[in-house]
Write a structure and sequence with these properties.
With 166 residues, the chain is an alpha+beta fold. The chain has one domain (2-139): Nitrilase/N-carbamoyl-D-aminoacid amidohydrolase (4-Layer Sandwich). Helices cover 33% and strands 22% of the residues. It is built from three helices and six strands, in the order H-E-H-E-E-E-E-E-H. The strands form two sheets. Strands 1-2-5-6 form a four-stranded mixed beta sheet, with helices on one face. Strand 5 and strand 6 (103-108) form a beta hairpin. The model has no long low-confidence stretch (mean pLDDT 89).
């Protein structure tokens, strides 16, 4: 689901229609091979924003969230900007969160691959917390905003060229 956790429309669409949300993410860290003085604050904000967004989605949908997440270090061309190289990691944050947004179990990227277990009460809790009127649940930060725009632009071009062949 990844970016779907960050969109308010996801919470609006799901609230009252599901009993539990089982999803996952492949959330990239801020590049570790770019200048540290620029990236340090962004990296902390990015990781915090990610897990906080999953907690908020649980609270706004009123159901528990079981969130699987990849964790690994990797290198690649930077998506949509092939002359830039990316070296970083996937943020991890596998979590089981109750319908009020409380973390019942969590596994960080530092802990590596593994399992988490917790008991949850399945079902919509009926709490109608106001979902923000904005498109995004939280501010994304400069680099994630750029990535969203660039990936959308270049992704549409790639899709038309490679998938929508007449």
């Amino acid at each position: 689901m990844c970016w779907e956790f960050l969109r308010t429309q996801t919470s609006r669409r799901l609230r009252g229609n599901i009993d539990i949300l089982i999803g996952g993410s492949h959330w990239w860290s801020i590049p570790e091979n770019w200048p540290k003085f620029i990236m340090r604050k962004m990296a902390s904000d990015n990781s915090h924003n990610f897990i906080t967004t999953v907690r908020e989605t649980a609270r706004l949908t009123g159901v528990p969230v079981i969130h699987a997440s990849h964790c690994a270090e990797f290198e690649s061309d930077f998506p949509s900007v092939p002359f830039l190289k990316y070296r970083g990691q996937l943020e991890g944050h596998a979590a089981i969160i109750d319908a009020e947004g409380n973390t019942l179990a969590h596994r960080s990227k530092e802990e590596g691959e593994g399992f988490i277990i917790a008991e949850v009460e399945v079902g919509y809790n009926g709490i109608e917390e106001k979902i923000p009127d904005s498109f995004w649940l939280r501010k994304r930060g400069l680099l994630p905003t750029f990535s969203w725009i660039a990936d959308g632009f270049f992704g549409k071009r790639w899709y038309k060229k490679n998938v929508l062949k007449n």
